Amino acid sequence: MTYPYAVYWPLAGAFRTEKEQNRRFDYFLWMDDDVLFNKDDVMALLKASQVNDAPFVAALPYDRNGPKSPSIVEKVDGQPFKWVKAPKSGSYPVAMTGFVLCLFRREIFDVVPEPWFGVCAPAKGFSGVAPDWWWSIQMSKVDIQPWVCCDTNVRHLGTNGIADRKSSELFFDTHDVAALGELQDRTLYTSQNTGAIMTKPPTYSDGRGEYEQGSNIQ
């Protein structure tokens, strides 16, 4: 089942079960169908949610194609930066994160505006289907930040092999920064907030209105 219906289908089932059993679920765990993980990853998400009082936590996601960099955008002084090398451990509030494996607390669905997992307008080089980015934007509208847990080791199955911390950092350590893909600026920066190594993400001006020029990434 394609996005965004893939996420809605099991969530709708959870809401239906709530009505049938007259009780609310505590958490909703989502995993993409092209990832490998284990119970330790799930427990790390649960711990991160509880310790940080975070209603939404994603396992550290890696782009399945290209340089396989972390699928994370962090805001610094109001400007978006894309992670290219993640912190070794810890959990951090970020601006946007890919799904891959993520944990939602039940109450977040009571405050985040719908559509939760909408379909973005298409832009150059993209299909336009981005439920994870869309969800991050919807959370920002009610001042909820996504969190990412770097104490996970989820493996994302890509077209050129597995994307995980090992393969991503191997690419980063053995390639020139010019190989990092279509980025606005290949200068590397170190985040004072998280310790991640990052660079400026691409900008769009042809369809993704909420992303245009990178100015509205919350």
Largest sheet: 5 strands, mixed
Strand order in space, largest sheet = 1-8-3-9-6
Overall 3D geometry?
Answer: globular
Integer count of domains = 1
Name of the level-1 CATH class:
Alpha Beta
Give the structural class: alpha+beta
Binned, the helix content reads 10-25%
Rg of Cα set: 17 Å
Question: Tally of extended strands?
Answer: 13
Q: How many angstroms separate the termini?
A: 29 Å
Explain what you see:
- There is one protein chain.
- The chain is an alpha+beta fold and 218 residues long.
- It has one domain (5-211): Spore Coat Polysaccharide Biosynthesis Protein SpsA, Chain A.
- The protein is 23% helix and 24% strand.
- It has four helices and 13 strands.
- The protein has helices spanning 5-21, 39-51, 131-140, 165-174, and strands at residues 27-31, 35-36, 56-59, 72-76, 79-85, 91-93, 96-97, 101-105, 147-149, 155-158, 161-163, 185-190, 197-200.
- The strands form three sheets. A five-stranded mixed beta sheet has the order 1-8-3-9-6, with helices on both faces.
- A hairpin with a 2-residue loop joins strand 10 (155-158) and strand 11 (161-163).
- The model is unreliable at 206-218 (pLDDT under 50).
Topology:
Blueprint: H1 5-21, E1 27-31, E2 35-36, H2 39-51, E3 56-59, E4 72-76, E5 79-85, E6 91-93, E7 96-97, E8 101-105, H3 131-140, E9 147-149, E10 155-158, E11 161-163, H4 165-174, E12 185-190, E13 197-200
Please sum up the structure shown:
With 218 residues, the chain is an alpha+beta fold. It has helices at 5-21, 39-51, 131-140, 165-174; strands at 27-31, 35-36, 56-59, 72-76, 79-85, 91-93, 96-97, 101-105, 147-149, 155-158, 161-163, 185-190, 197-200.
